[in-house]
């Protein structure tokens, strides 16, 4: 961990109210400035103890503190470095190792994910059993969305009407496997807005999960492969519709900074979140009315890590008839945070409940977010709340979920709002 | 086994395992508050959930003669919550429930760990707010506000915490739960407790006054070539009989820092900016605004902006409120000073600070609540350069001397804490300090409640923990009576 980055923290505490774990537990060592203090202790020679690793692991990496910090502390860099140190120096329990091993051998690989679809669907019924074996397995079973109909995207989709841009599309692992309809909608929206969309068929994982979990070498490997895939596709701009992936791809130059050749290639790649790209491009296609109330959820890796807050709101608000509602405490993470809800299921569940409560309080019909992890997490929490409230009371705890791209797609194609989203409450 | 260890073992009778911190790695995260210059790893940290738990912990401390320190969010800037290595740190960050909101009587009852801003957020929809607004309001706790008698930009018009607290339930240093109310006949003990910096006990429940959100708020940003122009405008505004909600001034260096941190977009080339906020009924604010506008132009303002919306107002304030932490962007380390001077002495004191900068080769950024002469010079230094920290300390101390020379005070709102206790004797005579100690002794005869703070040297019944042996000299000479 870079002592210079640690020194930037002046201990003012402005980060505390935005930190999900501080909000939950009210403890200094589970706050950003407390964790920076832990890092400082390590730099000064204190070894990584179980306690220290535990508090660093408990950080969601939501980066709300980065937004809140008036001193410009680069906590994002710091926690990535700290996680790498923990991975290297800390010996985890065999159970922890097994679960982590499984997650990192599964999620970044689409084919393996595809193979897991049926077992995951079955695992829902086995949840109580899995929960007893290991809470992480239970969480996984609870979060897994129902198997989706696979969508095969062609390698190139031509712009409708005059071409205004050519872009590449990152299809993502979880997004691609569990939410293929989001990628399909993204491609349609881009095409309708006048973009040629290139979808490199053999793109792998972008490395976000590895990067955000301190698995440095693995992250670099995935980063290089992704860069190479888009170079081959000859696109200057890559559009990403999953917040976590976009944020890690924007960090490629930093991730690969020790390999100047790759860092340069990384810097040449222009990465944009879908909403960011569409706002920069400006609207061309006609927006048809979409009478639906929408609660927009800020994915941390979009709002905090990429600073993209106004663009998705601007796009949604521009749809005639759409009623956009704000969620209270929007800056606080929903608890999904990449792999967090798998490795820290209890804290994640508390945060998920907190978020679902505030989402439902908006009374909106549709929850919109730009990250598959958030969608699964909040949907699962809403489902829990519905079960707790007794599912007989129809309407209570029922909210449909969709991605920004799907909402835009429905408006651009003049589809009814009823066509949008899965019902989180029913979930099968 | 040390006394502290014996006490720690008994804490499990009061608190569950999660609420007692003894692991050294964890303890070190509590080694300082917002003032990082002073650090001490606490002997043990407790995170109680109720007044009863606090009282029980304090009774244990009393029984074993172990000192204790209360801490809220740990944002204080005078080291008031600096822990004791041989003591217990009682942290109220889990006591953050708003217990009651009573709009008809304009009051709210909150636990000490509730943040200042959380109160306003809870009542904003109903047209009310909690008036004191320290710059750290989104995180600083009400318990800490009470201990430090915190102010904020708007205390020019609305007063400090003491003007907005109606009742306090507290745990006395011998572990009794008592209630102090503004309606209590006799001595104003509530007034004595507020601002006592944790030396008279720990607040466990605070009843605050809610104020009506003003009908109109107008925020004006005036840019001047130099700080003198701004100073002239401040004096003229107050001289004209206008009491703005706030008048804040920042000098060029502070502006530079704020721009770097939050891109607040203040007018380019400004040597000083003045933020003037007027609030109240439309007619009054309109009239006052015309006056302020005229006065600022006469004093040499080259640009005057008026916030047209809540967003624009927030943008103006963002620069000011983030200024302290923002200085981290232009300097590796800095000391936040807090002093008061009579408004009319502002130009002389600022000229004095300029001379100090030249003499020591140390940069000072100035941020002030100009309306009431409360200065916050930020003394910048590089802690990697040997000796510069000491130089900065010296400049910081000399600034306080300047304040005292001009009839001011060594603290406006950050408190004395551990940081300024050594300056107390520059302001007060021995007799003054002895008298203050008598008040202290009345509440805390064993000197266990936040010892080592406020007072310059261990003396009288105060600062050395443990039961005193023999008769107190003041008692012996007949000057005081032991309670």
UniProtKB/TrEMBL annotation, chain A:
The organism's place on the tree of life at top rank: Bacteria
Known EC number: 1.1.99.14
Cofactor field: [4Fe-4S] cluster
SUPFAM superfamilies: 4Fe-4S ferredoxins
Catalytic activities: glycolate + A = glyoxylate + AH2; (R)-lactate + A = pyruvate + AH2
Role according to the record: Component of a complex that catalyzes the oxidation of glycolate to glyoxylate.
Name of the protein in its database record: Glycolate oxidase iron-sulfur subunit
Lineage: Bacteria, Bacillati, Actinomycetota, Actinomycetes, Streptosporangiales
The gene coding this protein: glcF
TrEMBL record, chain B:
PROSITE patterns: FAD_PCMH
Entry keywords, A to Z: FAD, Flavoprotein, Oxidoreductase
Source species, domain of life: Bacteria
Record-level Gene Ontology MF annotations: FAD binding; oxidoreductase activity
Pfam families: FAD-oxidase_C (PF02913), FAD_binding_4 (PF01565)
Xref: SUPFAM superfamilies: FAD-binding/transporter-associated domain-like, FAD-linked oxidases, C-terminal domain
TM ranges: none
All residue ranges annotated as the FAD-binding PCMH-type domain in the record: 38-213
Cofactor: FAD
Entry keyword annotation includes Oxidoreductase: yes
Protein name: FAD-binding protein
Lineage: Bacteria, Bacillati, Actinomycetota, Actinomycetes, Streptosporangiales
Gene that produces this protein: glcD
